[in-house]
Amino acid sequence: MFDWLIEGINGYFASRSTTDLIWEAVGVGAQLLFASRWLVQWIHSERAARSIVPIQFWFISITGGVILLAYGVYHVSIAIIIGQLGGLAVYTRNVFLIYKRRRIDAEGEVPVEDQVHQHD
To answer: Mind giving me the DSSP string for 5-29?
Structure first.
């Protein structure tokens, strides 16, 4: 009944080198890791009873993004390379901002954006 599917899968694996198959596994693993960040975000939001984005979300994004970038470079996929480079810039910036805010909070400073500006 599913002979066509089994033949297609066998043909797919038979036509690929070991290196290609390893990179396919890396790509699938990276996609699964990348997708898991939404599960992490959901769990944290449910526990807090509000929508939040935990720092783990950004670290998973960076890790998955770097692996997907490597996958894109291996396959010379400009779309993947450009997409991951843009995303990695945003993910890294968010981690930087989180640590900056933590440092400010630890030092007891009031960030400029939180200061009340009074006009005479």
So the answer is: HHHHHHHHHHTS-HHHHHHHHHHHH
In a domain, 116, yes or no: no
Find the domain containing 67 and state its range: 11-106
Inside any domain, residue 88:
yes
Q: Give me Rg for the CA atoms of the chain.
A: 21
CB 88, CB 65: distance < 8 Å: yes
More confident site: 104 or 119? 104
Q: Which two tokens stand for residue 34?
A: 């990348």
Give the model's pLDDT for residue 119.
Answer: 53
Residue in the block written with tokens 């960076």: 62
pTM confidence score = 0.74
Report pLDDT digits (tens) over 2-52.
888 889 888 888 888 999 999 989 989 989 998 999 999 999 999 999 999
Domain count, the chain: 1
Q: How far is CA 62 from CA 5, 10, 50, 89, 94, in A?
A: 35, 34, 24, 9, 10
How far is residue 105's CA from residue 99's CA, in Å, rounded to a whole number?
10
